[in-house]
Amino acid sequence: MIALFLVSAIFAILCYRYDPKSPSLRWVVFLLICSSLAGLSRAIIESFIPALNKNDMNFDLLNTFLYGLRIFTGFVSIYFCPYGILMHAVVYSGRFTSKVIRTLKYILLIPIPFMVDTTVYVPDIVPDFDSMLYWAVPYICIACIIHIYAYMTEKDEKKKKSRFITLSLMFPVILTALILNYIVRAFNSSNQIWRYVVFFLIISFFIFIWKALGSGSLNGIKLRYEREAREKTSKAVTSGTSLLNHSIKNQIYKINSSLQIIQPHSHNLDASCQKAVEIINKSSNHLIEMVDRMQSQTQEIQVKKSNCDLSELIDETLNYVQKEIEAKGITVEKVYEPNIYAYCDSTHTKEVFLNIIKNSIESMDRSGNIRIVITKGTGNQITVSFTDDGSGISEENLRHVTEPFFTTKGRRGTNFGLGLHYCYDVMLKSNGNLHIESELNKGTTVTLTFPLKG
């Protein structure tokens, strides 16, 4: 049972470390704490107390403390576990509103206080497994049904795969706990077959580590190392380009100041010198424009969120590039669900849309199609997808497209390879997500996920 205590405790720490803000993950941590307490509870009577007796350290005060700890950990682990299993299913499914989740969080606790009176505490804790047949078993069964329903109705293939991994890890542990720990012990409380649950938990633990390290995400968890590295890169880019921009601007202003002195007397110069002055003037203005554009795409993003009509923002963005669309003979197909509002920054979000649409336009030589779809996703999410049949992106380049200064277009004009990096950062700051799927010479789909307010 010490193994159960240690594995569950380590598992809980790892999960919490990955993403402490994830609501579904917090319930996983809650479950693992219950499991860890169950291991500690059994370890007290099977390992700690016998070891103390063997070494003549069984003091009355210490025995009283260990007995109290055994009762507390045993009570919490056995009664709160079904509650945690159901609450995790409710939250992770994404099918319930925040208000319903808050209500269920309190309502589902109702049976537990009644267990205080029906539990036997002397000479050792004996949980009321008979009563748990009528509430704990249904809790776990309902949780399994919610998980299966959420998986079957999931439209996003990436999320569906993540749900499948989650179910493949959790179901063996949940079902063995249901049968061996709650149903079998209701008919024979002294039956020790429930100990096999530990093996399933340990197996799930190692599969979790393997999958997490291999794919970087699990159960809504994203390994934070990549994100932290990305944030460090962004900060380095921001500070570095700010310093560079400042230095370049200072030199350009010196050039412009000198030009202002020369220009009133340019009529005294020959034609070639006048042409040179004109070129210097245009070049300095172009440099300032490029520096300003680079600075706007690398400076720290500050989002001011409000409820925004996404269809309206997209239509406004399309108006900006209407001439380019018409010039290339591109067809834009719009599929909008009515009355879709997202909680985001309207200015930055329009800039994100503009970057994505411009990329689609630039990927097509002549004609082509851009399909824009706005849908209400699962739970409190909205998805916006942009699909084009342009040149696409190679598999090698696809993994780098959101990195700063990476570009597949060549270093021309004011293209710095910062567009998708900016888009990614805006979505990150908006508590959303950006996902890109592409195949060379076939097209690209960019999917944005936005949160709903509350």
TrEMBL record:
In what residue span(s) does the Histidine kinase domain sit? 243-454
**A Pfam family matched by this chain, by name?**
HATPase_c
- Keywords annotated in UniProt: ATP-binding, Kinase, Membrane, Nucleotide-binding, Phosphoprotein, Transferase, Transmembrane, Transmembrane helix, Two-component regulatory system
A single Gene Ontology MF term assigned here is: protein histidine kinase activity
**Transmembrane residue ranges:** 27-45, 65-86, 132-152, 164-187, 193-213
Q: Which EC number(s) does the record attach to this protein?
A: 2.7.13.3
Top-rank taxon: Bacteria
> A GO term (biological process) for this protein?
phosphorelay signal transduction system
> Per the record's keyword annotation, is Hydrolase included, yes or no?
no
Q: Does the keyword Nucleotide-binding apply?
A: yes
Q: Which reaction does it catalyse?
A: ATP + protein L-histidine = ADP + protein N-phospho-L-histidine
- Which PANTHER family does this entry report, sorted A to Z? PEROXIDE STRESS-ACTIVATED HISTIDINE KINASE MAK3, SENSOR HISTIDINE KINASE
Protein name as annotated: histidine kinase
